[in-house]
Amino acid sequence: MCRWLAYSGTPVLLETILYKPEHSLIDQSLHSRMGVETTNGDGFGVGWFGPEMRTPAIVREIGPAWSNRNLREIAGHVRSHLFFAHIRASTGSAVQQTNCHPFRHGRWMWMHNGAIAEFPRVRRDLALAVDPRLFRQIEGSTDSEMMFFLALTLGLEEDPPGAVARMAGLVEEVGHEHGVEYPLQMTVAVTDGRRLWAFRYSSQGDSRSLYYSTRVETLRSLHPGMSFLQEVSDDTRLIVSEPLGDLPGVWNKVPESSYGVVQPEGDALMPFTPQAA
Amino acid sequence: MCRWLAYSGTPVLLETILYKPEHSLIDQSLHSRMGVETTNGDGFGVGWFGPEMRTPAIVREIGPAWSNRNLREIAGHVRSHLFFAHIRASTGSAVQQTNCHPFRHGRWMWMHNGAIAEFPRVRRDLALAVDPRLFRQIEGSTDSEMMFFLALTLGLEEDPPGAVARMAGLVEEVGHEHGVEYPLQMTVAVTDGRRLWAFRYSSQGDSRSLYYSTRVETLRSLHPGMSFLQEVSDDTRLIVSEPLGDLPGVWNKVPESSYGVVQPEGDALMPFTPQAA
Amino acid sequence: MCRWLAYSGTPVLLETILYKPEHSLIDQSLHSRMGVETTNGDGFGVGWFGPEMRTPAIVREIGPAWSNRNLREIAGHVRSHLFFAHIRASTGSAVQQTNCHPFRHGRWMWMHNGAIAEFPRVRRDLALAVDPRLFRQIEGSTDSEMMFFLALTLGLEEDPPGAVARMAGLVEEVGHEHGVEYPLQMTVAVTDGRRLWAFRYSSQGDSRSLYYSTRVETLRSLHPGMSFLQEVSDDTRLIVSEPLGDLPGVWNKVPESSYGVVQPEGDALMPFTPQAA
Amino acid sequence: MCRWLAYSGTPVLLETILYKPEHSLIDQSLHSRMGVETTNGDGFGVGWFGPEMRTPAIVREIGPAWSNRNLREIAGHVRSHLFFAHIRASTGSAVQQTNCHPFRHGRWMWMHNGAIAEFPRVRRDLALAVDPRLFRQIEGSTDSEMMFFLALTLGLEEDPPGAVARMAGLVEEVGHEHGVEYPLQMTVAVTDGRRLWAFRYSSQGDSRSLYYSTRVETLRSLHPGMSFLQEVSDDTRLIVSEPLGDLPGVWNKVPESSYGVVQPEGDALMPFTPQAA
């Protein structure tokens, strides 16, 4: 399992979010509170959009995030208005760059926490369901990358929530064919550089934790003394596997079987149900 | 493309073969003479059998062999009577441990130099031909690993030359279906810990170089002063992508479209023809 | 801080000690119970003596031990009668191979848990105390390597306990000159391939944990059902940063300010006091 | 030995300089024409200044540049008006991040090609000459980093050309004391984020190659069809170990024993002579 965060809003140095909070993602790499594993040291990745960037830049490495100096350098010098960060705890698949999140396809970035249950048994059937033109781009061996390519096959670029629902439906169908009771466990973030979607779902109805930050306007009235809140725009939003600290009123659980979208035309939170692919 | 060597015979420190010859494999990692690339710095691997070892030990890394201190340590302290070593020059697939040779399945080790032409286009069809129970063990993204799993699917453990011939036939058939004129280019080494097979073949009839060492008995009479030759047994044999030096009479070309077997019951050199799978 | 173990006795596969115990060193890399940090993921090393080996082989890597496949391969295939293993939690110095333990000089291997307090402040003065001919061999930036080279300078190869006492005395003297109240914190293991010494000391009299295993003869009568104990010789001994499991009667604390020696002529436990260098 | 380039001028994506030229630095990592080694695969680094950056960002890795995906990502997405890039061919010191260039101290960046002759013999004496407050910041084991800390000790931040001259004088003095005939071989680049200095010198008067680009104004009249030249400002300048291609009129040798400065108040080329420290 893993931990991740997604940021959208006022351009900030990545370190503002990745390193500075009390229980930052980097802290979580050593001391996760809500993860299945307390240590997430099997690789990491950051992906960011900047001004004039048509595709996100993605930097991934196989060692732990906590000791990586290049991540520290990038976080201290790169600004972004929309970025993903992910720390990995492998549950068996190889520790290699192509298994690190986020994954990318054109403008699209994808990251995941969770698992396809008994992935080795269902991997081949899922691979067959990937569009043959996309199949050749699969480089790693994770369930997470497979989910991304299935979602792309099923229309991610036109209808993200629908494609993710069809991907989840397909994973459950194939799992059930192989006698797996609860085939899917996931929190997923995906973006095209403009909008950001985050999904929380598991076949068992007992999904990994996922939180979104309260509206900045509300936070300002709750915490009038926090200068950081004065500097960020009203539409700034964070979605995280676990809260970055204990500040009251900041973090809200994404409900079971639901998804949110962060976008210029207004954020929204909606129910999520897998669909037949 | 890549360079490799396979050793069978009197137990020696790996460094005797890997580092000490004039134009050793480590030297070839920086200055290959016959390879498609002069530099082979995209990972390496060694696999060895020792006394009482039922499976080979395999150490693989993603950096260049020439500067790797752990390889130097292992080579200077481990003895083996049967070992493989491989240095990699990636032609596009990721530089990651699971793409480094040798590959292993139980007692079996496999390494390869060459390529399946236009592998991204044919990869999916070849993947479908792998036994589903084996498919789940594929960890990397190379044509070389795919060839190994196809050969395993097609009977490698019972009939190595036949299985490799069927694998080659299948690769050519699938390639032709995709309009590839010359689908396969390969030199392959494979062992079960007792016997060692080496294949040289390409669809175009213009295969990568492969050499085997002259019988030790003959070498002793050619080079009576070489103490190394006094110390190794008569059945010691090396198969290499390119000669480890310029000593006259030592190296013999493996002919086009042929394979050799090194085994206790006597070595042999035979023609190789792909077969319908 | 770090965790380590030292083994001397019947030749075993390294994995017997490194991976198989309930709370093995590999488990400790993720879940140390007694270490200053619970995670020891900033590199690792193993060093072993085998038959006919005049120097130990040392394999060190900068990633976590728990996910390292090469360590798993080596541990599963290499036998040794005398070996060290170390997992590192950096307290600031760079995560690099030359900062991983064990360190080697000829036949001698050294590993350490602890710290020289305020090392950046005293580092230069300590470096000046190293024999100029040895100074050029310092490759890393840790206090641990510096302690090794100071001990070598002060006679480690002739009188290990005396040299370590003089090294500790020097570190305390230099520390006090710089106003450091408690300059030294250490558990150290050192071997020449025949004997093995382990030291536990700290200026404050509050040293990191260190344990040695009970005599095999006694363990056999305590745990008559354990087959492992039947297979190892009477002189087999383990020294560890923390117990490898909860089996009653197996582990004994090395007392404060003392050292032990494991050797063919009989093991011994003695008091340790720093000496003027 | 190594290869490097320094860029100052119109902000560009790093890839414009690092990857796109015919004989780019990345190409030189595999096929250097003028280097002592044709392969420079023992680590690399880039350091860049961007808008609002008070210190440069520095990303360094230990593998080859040619296969590094993170370097490709950064180069394709980061713009800079002043950056350094370096590819390393180790002549013996460890392949580790702290031995990769550029080195940094506050706003200052430093990179080097060449060597202090017989560095192991003179290393200790040179280390003693480093300001004790700076000594503690030395993390690696290269002559290049030592030269940087000596130059800092000798006034780099106040008088760069003078400090480098005194550093060179000291290296020669210490070398001669140890019986070294030609103690120093160097091309060095150093910047404070505003100005950029480049030095070419060797004790033997036979220095490694160094080139600077012709004034953009002149190049435009030489190559009126090159669109790149229309886009960059008149003060854009490149300094490189070897030309990035064969375009006539672009590259000029930095003369023996001289240095250049690139700065807003006008570039200049001057003689360089070591001075007594």
Automatic annotation (TrEMBL), chains A, B, C, D:
<protein>
    <submittedName>
        <fullName>Class II glutamine amidotransferase</fullName>
    </submittedName>
</protein>
<dbReference type="InterPro" id="IPR017932">
    <property type="entry name" value="GATase_2_dom"/>
</dbReference>
<dbReference type="InterPro" id="IPR052373">
    <property type="entry name" value="Gamma-glu_amide_hydrolase"/>
</dbReference>
<dbReference type="InterPro" id="IPR026869">
    <property type="entry name" value="EgtC-like"/>
</dbReference>
<keyword id="KW-0315">Glutamine amidotransferase</keyword>
<dbReference type="Pfam" id="PF13230">
    <property type="entry name" value="GATase_4"/>
</dbReference>
<dbReference type="InterPro" id="IPR029055">
    <property type="entry name" value="Ntn_hydrolases_N"/>
</dbReference>
<feature type="domain" description="Glutamine amidotransferase type-2">
    <location>
        <begin position="2"/>
        <end position="243"/>
    </location>
</feature>
